């Protein structure tokens, strides 16, 4: 059946205080209920039994041990002939704490504890000639235990679901931030590397061109650092770091101009047709940006063609280059292509990336609706 988590009110403060008060009330109430009892056992022993039946509320122990122990001690209390009292609340209280603190099912062990308590009630009659409403007492004990377990299990399930949801949201945010950093900062670093290479190439014979490349490196590095700082501030929960607006189709000209400044000939054909939803615009921009980044880093290409066209209810984004380097495992397994594919898939689209006759091609088809 596997290991069970220890249970008990382990937190300091109000919860532990409630547990201590419950234990004291159980023992004091049991002492007061023994005035007219006819049991041959001493009163103090009944008080101890009632306390032991409630101890699992405070002491961490495996859930089966807590419930079976409480049920067995409660049964012994009744079988010894002690009078009715607050001991009826022992099993429901333990069942409540078990269901509230355990991540595994505990209804079966709650049933065992109730069965033990009912057996003790049933045995009290013939053993001590006790009169009373035994049937209703058994029903009441079972009803209290089941109700306590059901309420706590419901609260625990909602708490676990909320925790899981928060973890899922945090994971999604981390993935989003990783993609943003990869797209923005990674693209900037690729441009910086290309501009640095160009500057070194013309440093001696064309100082003006080298100066232009160094200026581009400065501007790109500032932009990348600003984006990195913004994302880190957001990751740290800083309120002074509003999310930067995601770029769209209107920003493609600026993107292409930056890549051209690095020495790559980029030809842009932009005809998106009627208004395109913003999420589609953002995804299309990300596909173009990442594709051009891969061209700069891996393709050794002399040019890249970028096409963004409307085809019926789809926006088709194609980035094609004449790269001469074979597609390696870094491109296939890296964050770039998988990130593009994820962005497009979320919108119900599809993305293909592979070599063509003259180089490498990325093609994304994204639905834009009616």
Automatic annotation (TrEMBL):
Enzyme Commission (EC) number: 2.7.13.3
Keywords in alphabetical order: ATP-binding, Kinase, Membrane, Nucleotide-binding, Phosphoprotein, Transferase, Transmembrane, Transmembrane helix, Two-component regulatory system
Broad class of enzyme this protein falls into: transferase
Stretches that traverse the bilayer: 12-31, 43-63, 75-99, 106-122, 134-155, 184-203
Domain (Histidine kinase/HSP90-like ATPase) ranges: 283-368
Domain of life of the organism encoding this protein: Bacteria
Annotated catalysed reactions: ATP + protein L-histidine = ADP + protein N-phospho-L-histidine
Keyword Acetylation among UniProt keywords: no
Molecular-function GO terms, alphabetical: ATP binding; phosphorelay sensor kinase activity; protein dimerization activity
Signal transduction histidine kinase subgroup 3 dimerisation and phosphoacceptor domain location: 173-234
Pfam families in the cross-refs: HATPase_c (PF02518), HisKA_3 (PF07730)
Lyase found in the keyword field: no
Gene Ontology CC annotations of this record: membrane
Name of the protein this chain belongs to: histidine kinase
